[in-house]
Batch of 2 targets.
Target 1
Amino acid sequence: MTELQRLYPDDKTCAMHLERARWPDGFCCSHCGAPGAPYRSTTRPSVLRCRACRKDNRLAVGTVMEGSHLPLRLWCWAAHLVWDRPDLSAAELQRQLGLSRYATAWMMGNHLRARVAALGADRVAAADPHACLSLLGRATGD
Ligand SMILES: [Zn+2]
């Protein structure tokens, strides 16, 4: 098992880490502002439904993942690889992710590198193995 598979074995685990990265103090609905644990779907782990207003909070909204149909797992893997090596080529990213299409790896790499550049000095060498998820965070605060 590779480090990527250990850190991000499935979409459910990825969703849990992304939720924690986005709401370090606990989930808070972006629609109504209500705090408290949301409804979590096992079939759609990227969607958190507010218990107060029942609206969906999508983990991808406002992030590089928005509009993509790729599983969360692949985004987390890609973020981890690009975090470690921002100069990683699209061909290498494609190989490591096991993607069939070069264009997909190229798109992911471009989005993630732009986030690396945007974070700049904030992209510190953190001991947290999930620090790479800051690349999958919102580009603008909410
Ligand atoms: Zn709400």
Target 2
Amino acid sequence: MDSSSAEGHGSAAASVKANSRERVSRALREGERLSELVRVAGRSLSANALRFARRVETSLGVWRLLAPPLVLHSRRRMYVAYRPDCDVVHHLHPELAVLAESWVKHTPKNSGDLPRLYALAFNIKQIIAEGVPGDFAELGVFRGNSAAVLAHYARQHGRSVFLFDTFEGFAAKDLSRTDANKVRDFAATSVDMAREVAGDSQVVYVKGRFPETVNADTERRQYAVVHLDCDLYEPMIAGLRFFFPRLSPGGLLVIHDYGGAHWDGVKRAVDEFTTGINERLVQLPDKAGTAMLRKSA
Ligand SMILES: C[S@@+](CC[C@H](N)C(=O)[O-])C[C@H]1O[C@@H](n2cnc3c(N)ncnc32)[C@H](O)[C@@H]1O
């Protein structure tokens, strides 16, 4: 080896070293952001999920040096992914910090479903930014976690939000045909519990079995955002029939559990209904397979 190539080798080694130092500090900076996620979600993650997230956090620097970017996953359901840059880097959605707290209140398992929270928030903001007229509604409220997102933006922009639920879980009458194999669920709630999460101002709680709870007021309204999350065929088809004609042009229809394969009645109702209208669904990769559509003008 002549001296010039030895020298060349030396400077190459120095630059590799500098490069890895930069990569290490970059990985540590990323690690800090992950710590923030673990801190926010940590209070509500299960002990196992938290242990996993901490392990990922500690080994993140090393993993990133090996093969960035990695999909960080457990062998089971959870993975650690980026949060949207517009929130964590550019801070365009400061309200998400508060909404994230409501998202997990009394329902800790929601903490892993951040894509769903972001998708709801960003699309509602889009509707507002475009000036789509109308109120908001949700069918299937349970403890008010997703309702809190609708209620936040409704309050901020002078709209009302109508929250339909039995607040006693599935109605026996709906556990028939497609859903005869399902069991009574979501009974562990109440209007007060949902109110604690979604608040009171500009929120109307409509208690009872949908669609029997529809009244002249909810019938005459126009809706800009409708969130259907009622798990079963009967309320889902009734919700689509009631809300779709009342959805404003450009309005947002969010259907939870469409692609998740667990609530087969939801998919059946939605497929049946959408074959008769000139609209197309977009599916999201959140936990239970949310689908959305924006009504044509
Ligand atoms: C999965 S939970 C809703 C969860 C909630 N959207 C969230 O993300 O926080 C489904 C809810 O649908 C409600 N539900 C189902 N069928 C209904 C019906 N026919 N009328 C009113 N509520 C109904 C149940 O009582 C239950 O609270």
